[in-house]
Amino acid sequence: MQVIETLAEGLKREIKVVIPAKDMEAQMNERLEGVKDRVRINGFRPGKVPFAQLKKMYGKSVMAELVNEIVRVRPNEILTERGEKSATQPDIAMTEDEAEADKILAAEADFEFTIAYEVIPKFELKDVSKIKVTREVVDIADEEVDTQVLQIAESAKTYETKKGKAANGDRVTMDYLGRVDGVAFDGGKDEDAELVIGSNRFIPGFEDQLVGVKAGDEKVITVTFPADYPAANLAGKEATFDIKVKDVAGAKDVEINDELATQLGLESAEKLREIVRSQIEGQYSSVARQKLKRQILDQLDEMYDFATPEKLVSAEFDNIWRQINTDLAQSGKTFADEDTTEEAAREEYNKLAQRRVRLGLVLSEIGEKAKIEVSDEEMQQSLFAQLRQFPGQEKEILDYFRNTPGAAASLRAPIFEEKVIDHLLNEISVTDKKVSKEELLADDEAEGKSEAKKAAPKKKAAAKKEAAAEEAVADEAAAEEKPAAKKKAPAKKKAADE
Prior knowledge:
By secondary structure, the protein is α+β, with helices and mostly antiparallel strands. Helices cover 44% and strands 18% of the residues. The chain folds into 3 domains: 2-118, Alpha-Beta Plaits (2-Layer Sandwich); 132-139 and 267-467, Orthogonal Bundle (Trigger factor, domain 2); 158-251, Chitinase A, domain 3 (Roll). It has helices spanning 21-35, 51-82, 98-105, 142-153, 258-263, 269-303, 310-331, 342-369, 376-389, 394-403, 407-425, 437-450, 475-478; strands at 2-9, 12-19, 91-94, 111-118, 132-138, 159-161, 171-180, 183-196, 218-224, 238-251, 429-435. Strands 6, 7, 8, 9 and 10 form a 5-stranded antiparallel beta sheet that branches. Helix 7 (310-331) packs across helix 8 (342-369) and helix 8 (342-369) packs across helix 11. The chain is elongated and about 105 Å long.
């Protein structure tokens, strides 16, 4: 077998492999010899089939199997022998001419194929002991914990019937019937519906008109459905609702005590506060870690400057660009709305893709030298986390990870990356700095927006490919919890709900 390098340009390599026809025929004959005693052909006793007949009947199929095996196995072996690592799966090319292929299968022509790939660039790891980072720490006040507890307690709030008129925050129990142009519409009717005034569950203007009603009142409410209401037959239409008030109830004052904790399934108020404090600490720690990680990556980025494999950069750019265009479509904005152009955005995000790939290679090398591994248990935990995010789709997700090449790497990559960051935190200089909650979150938002400067939409895409070394800041972890906007009109429920 001849292995001839035909291209060595930057990181690109191309190798021509030639296996003489006589060598291919020898391997084919060896395989036929191995099966001749087991082959059954009419007219011949087992083990007595003439080799020429065996070769005539099965030679080409055996040769085809041999060719497939060679192109599947030999490229990786050749790269290993050359001491090279391919950045992506090598591209294998062979003749597409049918006549030439027949000659190869008949052992009448040499088998030739080419291997095209990009090598992982070689670079020396640098001393990281001079890296200095600041870890921001927030002291959590008891008042903040109590505020969060009270917000949680809203779900356990109880109401009792009151005399007099309904006010903001009261719960109204009612029957209603909705009409558009005098005709009742599907989903516009309900009985014994409960609505807390000010909860913003119903379309704008509905709840405001309940202020002042009392048990026994009957009233007609007139509202206009939003222009973007999911049900097209109601969007932008004026509607009337015949209301019959059955009960008005006021909310009982919520106190942080053992009774509240019991309603929430906990043994004491102390335990409730402990859990809430832990959750707040986790949120702030997540933001602080992302900022700490960004400092490390920024300094590593300054330390290394080497060429990056084009295919890895292209894959990472496509991932980012797809997310950017999705964000634009969802927000209804254009690049012009973000004070940029598509061309400028492409240039900036290509730089970001190069940075991510370069840092990914650096972190991979650091992790390899530190003998960092991802355990099967950690992979399983990551998979279970994926399953929890998509209830009801567990089978599809499991099938995806079982049957999709490289899918498991998407689980392993972020785990490996975080373990490398943990390793680096033991090697570099880390200084703790006390900051306020506002400073932690404000700085986090500002730094997150500066990642790609002002190239395009400000919402940054998280790296999803295994080559990506950087993740978008988890802004949502620190953001104040707000109800998600409803995207679909409720089926068989309250059509007045927005």
